[in-house]
Amino acid sequence: MPLIIDSIEKHVSLTPEEKELFASKLEIQQHKAKTILLSPGEICQYSYFVNSGVLRSFNINDNIVEHVLQFACKGWWIGDMYSLISQKPGNLFIEVLEDAELVLLSKENQEQLYTEIPKLERFFRILIENSLVAHQERLMDNLSLSAEERFDKFCKRYPDLMQKIPQKQIASYIGVTPEFFSKMKSRILKNKI
């Protein structure tokens, strides 16, 4: 449990009793790579905190093209925020890319914790604000940066992922085809020599 507590205590301090109460509301699960935790049409019931492994959220459009919205590595949270907050069916897949240990916090338990440990509401507000800022920045990057610049930002944001996930998923995240990504990466590597 220390990683999730460390994550929280970057923003709010918890007493030993509050840490114990918080831990009592969590569920820990192990998942193998390629496990789908959530599919479109399902209502998201959990926020997932990554203790180890790598996850991604994505959707598939009508032309069967994947669009990666987010990767989540050790110490990151992931979920279908639209579905979790609205409690309506979502439109995202959440997939385990690398064997993972996850900490699950249900919507119901999160709401109870807001009442029992009010400072956690502040923590999750900060988390949601940071997520909103990151998603807005990504949207603006997609509108104004070249593919090379978006790839450079990806490498800085997720430095450990280059060897862990397929290139086609990185291409999807930065908004290019796998073929374009391959040519672009070759060109970048050639220019560094």
From TrEMBL:
> Superkingdom, according to UniProt?
Bacteria
A Pfam family cross-referenced in the UniProt record is cNMP_binding
What species is given as this protein's source? Flavobacterium pokkalii
Spell out the protein name for this chain.
Cyclic nucleotide-binding domain-containing protein
Where in the numbering of this chain does the Cyclic nucleotide-binding domain appear? 13-113
Give the InterPro entries listed for this entry: cNMP-bd_dom (IPR000595), cNMP-bd_dom_sf (IPR018490), RmlC-like_jellyroll (IPR014710)
